[in-house]
Amino acid sequence: MSSVTWSQVHAFRLQRHFLGQPASAGNLLDVVSATCGMQAQVMSAAQLALRTRIHGLTAPEIERALWQDRTLVKVWCMRGTLHVLSARELPLYVAALKPYRLKQEQRWMARFGVDAAAIETMADAIFTALSAAPLTRREVSQAISPRLRNDAPQIQELLEHGWGGLGKYVCLQGNLCLGPNQGQEATFVRRDQWLKDWEDIPGEMAEDLLLKHYLRAYGPATVQDFAAWAGLAVKDASRIWGRLQAEMCNVDIEGSQAAILERDLHILREAALATEDVRLLPHFDVYLLGHRSKSHLIDDAHYKRVYRAAGWISPVVLINGRIAGVWSHRQRGKTLQVSVEPFGQLSRSQRAAIESRAADVADFCAASLKLEYTGTTAKYPAN
């Protein structure tokens, strides 16, 4: 078994996430594919996550790829959360996760007295409602209410408390995507009308490909990490993991064991951190969500500052692959106010790097930068 250091692991993962060396312009699809998508329940955060990884990327480029070219797609996916994925890879994600995620959604709806027949009625009603044109959440609810009152009355309470979870079920079936906003409201579209060139992938093949994608981006990892990332039960993740054993090898990371694709082992061994790699990651950045345990990223004393209640993930200052603080931003007119709260003292060079990253965020927002440090360690930089 090969032995590697956490420094090598951080360097490997930063490289795979285009955080050690961001991609050049024009590589949007490659970055989204290589990172297994961007979490996107806050779309502005997903845009910032992509800008962090791609030099000079603009919001209109992302919007164009989503709503005009349709080379990117926004859907519910891993862990039942919204993601931006490569459209050409959506069949893979649907086939790999569909049987597991649908069962989880069925169990959730069963707690409200909704049986399998009602769920299928609801799914068919939504699919039919979207036949003519994209619809907002409110428009879909209005369109399907009459049928649900007649054929699935037990689902009405869920409809009244929020349609999103119901739309998620149809999305996880592979039949629905999010469309462009109408004002402040999201729209929903039928996948078969929105995306072309769909080709189904056999389930086991898709599961194996998903695990390979995951290990390329987040390895070395354990089966528990894979389960947590994908939103699977460990027993289901273990079945997929077992089929790929011949292509994986174990490594020892300073006393902890994890697996990596065998073809990536030499890259991991040669991985090395830059003298000082500093990044500002936004809310819900996927780099922070790839593993069950977060001890490789953050000290226990600061854990709840980042991984907050209700699944909220704070924006973080990342230095050499570990979380060194949190940050926030607020735009007022043409000024972007960025506040950074470090968890410990920062060197002058680290502060200079943070200022450079914050200036890039301001540039993305078409604003001038006003940067401040807060907290007990803010005033006195280390030499």
Model description:
Helix content is 44%, strand content 20%. The chain contains 16 helices and 14 strands. The chain has helices spanning 6-16, 28-34, 43-53, 59-67, 90-110, 116-129, 137-151, 156-160, 164-172, 191-194, 203-218, 223-230, 234-243, 265-270, 303-306, 348-364; strands at 2-4, 38-39, 72-76, 82-86, 135-136, 176-182, 185-190, 248-253, 256-261, 278-281, 316-319, 322-332, 335-342, 368-373. Helix 5 packs across helix 11 (203-218), helix 6 crosses helix 7 (137-151) and helix 12 (223-230) crosses helix 13 (234-243). The two termini are 40 Å apart.
Strand content: 15-25%
Alpha carbon gap, first and last residue:
40 Å
Average of pLDDT: 94
Broad structural category: alpha+beta
Q: What Rg do the Cα atoms give?
A: 22 Å
Q: pLDDT below 50 for ≥5 consecutive residues: which ranges?
A: none
The helix fraction, in percent, is: 40-55%
List the helices and strands in order.
EHHEHHEEHHEHHHEEHHHHEEHEHEEEHE
Largest beta-sheet characterization: 5 strands, mixed
